[in-house]
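Need residues for this backbone.
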């Protein structure tokens, strides 16, 4: 009986002590030599802190305190032994010379890491010089994504601010069960190909409660994207939320079960878009839901473009991408072009199963030119009030 009482007292004692212990072991990058002065190369210190945290048998935290930390191209590699956090209270900044990160395709890369949480802070890729190189037509490197997740599972990215990416701000590839929330993404509207968030060959991705102002797609969804949920996005300026471009090759993976809901588009080139190249392909996009969306002075609020040709080097063939089961529900607002809805589909693979329900889109110059709906090779139906009328 005495032994049992001793066991209970020990259990209560350790339970009480655990309330005051940190939930995970902290590895401060400053302890490994990083300096938050904005000029000292802290790449090695970050890698040392990551290696120690990743090797921990207990949940671990890589901590970046206040300050500005200069880091070059860096890969945080897993798998790690336990759950791991990467918590940033300061700012990570890339070198001013765009060549320092521009040749690798990425700046900050998490590779094969599971049970990962990335919290807060800011990252600044200082992309303006790289954009100038691109615009001038000089010989430039390929450019780098700011923060990327390759082959990662069970990931949370929360509260991050990303500014001035060379190319894409956030890349999610070959990953699953990823949640992205409360992000702030910013680059000038003139910045070329600066997608906000790009997803490809990934499943179970949720993007929620984020503001994206950039020079290309706010969110771009590439081949192999399955079960995506996108909600409460403030998009603009930029090119909207796009699926594609699809059909670059014959053996691309399809895009299935995409939902975009409760979001606002402001002065974007497009609203919600599906785009594919006009060339043979065996891929598809199906079960797409766009609902509860507000368009404010948007170029093409609703668009399916199967003759995508951004640089006038068009294949001039018929798209082999099969687009089907696409629903637009409760989409309202204004279009800056007369064509508020455009369904330009493939002659050999018409779009099928398009559903329009409770749509009200007007042209900002509606007194002179009312909004119109353009259809080619598209089949579907409508219910409720649909403005502009036409097609089906």
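Answer:
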């Amino acid at each position: 009986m005495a032994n049992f009482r001793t066991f209970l007292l020990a259990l209560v004692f350790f339970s009480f002590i655990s309330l005051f212990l940190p939930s995970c072991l902290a590895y401060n990058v400053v302890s490994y030599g990083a300096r938050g002065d904005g000029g000292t190369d802290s790449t090695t210190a970050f890698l040392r802190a990551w290696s120690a945290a990743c090797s921990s048998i207990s949940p671990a935290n890589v901590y970046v305190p206040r300050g500005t930390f200069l880091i070059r191209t860096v890969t945080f590699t897993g798998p790690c032994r336990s759950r791991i956090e990467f918590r940033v209270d300061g700012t990570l900044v890339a070198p001013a010379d765009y060549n320092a990160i521009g040749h690798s395709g990425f700046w900050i890369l998490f590779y094969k890491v599971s049970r990962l949480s990335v919290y807060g802070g800011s990252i600044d890729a200082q992309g303006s010089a790289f954009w100038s190189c691109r615009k001038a037509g000089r010989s430039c490197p390929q450019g780098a994504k700011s923060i990327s997740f390759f082959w990662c599972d069970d990931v949370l990215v929360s509260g991050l601010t990303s500014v001035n990416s060379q190319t894409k701000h956030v890349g999610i590839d070959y990953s699953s069960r990823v949640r992205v929330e409360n992000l702030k993404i910013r680059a000038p509207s003139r910045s070329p190909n600066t997608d906000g968030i790009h997803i490809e060959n990934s499943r179970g991705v949720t993007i929620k409660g984020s503001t994206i102002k950039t020079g290309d797609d706010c969110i771009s969804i590439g081949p192999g994207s399955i079960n995506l949920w996108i909600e409460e996005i403030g998009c603009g300026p930029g090119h909207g939320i796009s699926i594609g471009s699809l059909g670059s090759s014959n053996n691309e993976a399809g895009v299935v079960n995409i939902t975009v809901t409760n979001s606002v588009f402001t002065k974007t080139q497009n609203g919600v878009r599906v785009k594919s190249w006009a060339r043979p392909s065996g891929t598809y996009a199906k079960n797409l839901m766009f609902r509860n969306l507000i368009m404010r002075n948007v170029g093409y609020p609703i668009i399916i473009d199967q003759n995508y040709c951004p640089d006038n080097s068009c294949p001039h063939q018929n798209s082999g991408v099969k687009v089907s089961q696409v629903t637009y529900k409760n989409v309202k607002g204004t279009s800056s072009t007369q064509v508020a809805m455009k369904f330009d589909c493939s002659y050999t693979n018409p779009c099928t199963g398009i559903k329009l329900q409770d749509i009200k889109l007007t042209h900002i110059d509606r007194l002179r030119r009312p909004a119109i709906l353009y259809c080619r090779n598209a089949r579907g139906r409508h219910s409720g009030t649909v403005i502009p009328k036409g097609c089906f």
